[in-house]
Amino acid sequence: MLQELVNIGDKIEIKRLDSRGGVVKSSKTYVSQMVDFEEDNNISIAAPIHNNRVIVLEKWVNYRLYFYTIKGLFQCDCTMLQTYRENNMVLALVKVISEPEKIQRRQYYRIECVHEIEYRPVTEEEVQLKEKLLSGEYIHPDEKTEIRKTLAAFENTWIHAVITDLSGGGCRFTSEQELKAGDKVRIRLDFVLKNELKKLDIVAEIISSERKIDKTGVYEHRAEFCDISQNDREQLIKYIFEQERRLIKNKSDRSN
Known about the structure:
Layout: H1 2-5, E1 11-16, E2 30-37, E3 42-46, E4 49-50, E5 53-54, E6 62-69, E7 72-86, E8 89-96, E9 101-102, E10 111-122, H2 124-135, H3 141-154, E11 159-166, E12 170-175, E13 184-193, E14 196-211, E15 219-227, H4 230-255
Antiparallel strand pairs: 1-2, 1-6, 2-3, 3-8, 4-5, 6-7, 7-8, 7-9, 10-11, 10-13, 11-12, 12-15, 13-14, 14-15
Helix pairs in contact: 2-3
């Protein structure tokens, strides 16, 4: 069942369980990734790394695993069996002891990063003009031409910004423009996935916008994607997982 939901390389978060099967609230959350499916309901996962140090999970202790997949967020419990090394990687062999359960909440794994983008505000005037153009409610062909000229002018107002964390559901970014909660923006986001350049054009809603105390004239915005196709979202999630796998590998290489 798990193999039908989880792919090799998928992101995993790990929480320790107590003797009654509940999550230990004071325990740290460790980050790992799916490595391989083994026999007897066992799986291999990367040993988590915290503060550039490999964390050895305690043998015979139960943990809850949260799998961030293309199909959603799933959880299941496991028992730690052994830690071993393979191809310069420290791995943990665990036995899955519960059926995977989908967590019914919209949650996407978020990665901290520095990624340059362009964005521009979407004004109410722009929305109304587009609706007018699509409905054909303009009075004269000359009005249609003017509407198109005005909409084209909006396309010349792109503003440089920097994403500081990113998920399949939204992002946090900084810019020199002040925005407010409820504003709509279009975001141009380019990234490389499996050596292929992807170009996304996403409409997002600003959730919050605050002036950064440590940087004069810079604002930090939190935005939720509200107009993104399922295919674009899946491509973005794959890119985020790919970047996280690269980060884990680099940390593992430095710790060896």
